[in-house]
Amino acid sequence: MPGLLLHICCGPCASVVIPRLQEQYQVTGFFYNPNIFPFAEYERRLEAAARVADFWKIGLIKGEYEHTFFQTAVQGLENEPEGGTRCTVCFRLRLAATAAQAVQAGFTLIASTLTVGPNKKAEVVNRIGHEAVANHGINFISGDWKKQDGFKQSVTFSRRLGLYRQNYCGCEFSIKNFNGAHR
């Protein structure tokens, strides 16, 4: 089976994407989320992602927590609505880092768990994923992981495993704007 580096935004979302991809790929997780604020929240999400990786018996690469990098990238976009330009910039940061990590680690395929969330538009994430790999000689596996009850399954799995489930997207700007649909 070909190896695939999976960008993991959080444990709950990874819980449904990993087994779907394991049907065709040897999956390794990559937790890179410089957007998450505060750091304690980042640690909680990383711990949940690690528990899911252990459950599905995959490796997990932990990217650096580069929150200042994220803040600089989204400067001027602080008041954008959820799903707006700030989110597009954030997706680009994370998927570009995933593509670079894949090349460094010898993977030729990447994917992302981002589209499990009900507020994440698969067409936007998938387009950015394909852009991220364009100059790296690797491929992006598109997916709308919320389909086939993916989001519902992530909720059920999280309860079963006692995983932390966040109630906002991750950045400090989304705390005040998020409608809580991710719980």
Question: If you had to describe this structure to a student in words, what would you say it looks like?
Answer:
This protein is an alpha/beta fold and 183 residues long. It has helices at residues 11-22, 39-56, 67-73, 85-105, 122-133, 150-161, 172-177, and strands spanning 3-8, 26-31, 59-62, 109-112, 139-140. The chain has one domain (3-177): Rossmann fold, CATH 3.40.50.620. The chain has seven helices and five strands. Strands 3-2-1-4-5 form a five-stranded parallel β-sheet, with helices on both faces. Helix 1 packs parallel to helix 2 (39-56), helix 1 packs across helix 6 and helix 4 crosses helix 5 (122-133). The longest helix has 21 residues, at 85-105. Residues 179-183 have low confidence and may be disordered.
Name some characteristics of this structure.
single chain; 183 residues; alpha/beta; Rossmann fold; 5-stranded parallel β-sheet; 7 helices
Oligomeric state of the chains present here: single chain
CATH architecture title = 3-Layer(aba) Sandwich
**What is the count of DSSP helices, taking H or I runs of 4+ residues?**
7
Q: What's the helical proportion of residues?
A: 40-55%
Q: Strand pairing plus helix content: what structural class?
A: alpha/beta
Task: Estimate the global geometry from the Cα principal axes.
Answer: globular
Spell out the helices and strands N to C: EHEHEHHEHEHH
* Global Rg: 15 Å
Please provide the count of β strands.
Answer: 5
Uncertain runs? 179-183
By CATH, the topology is Rossmann fold
The first-to-last residue Cα distance is 34 Å
Strand content: 5-15%
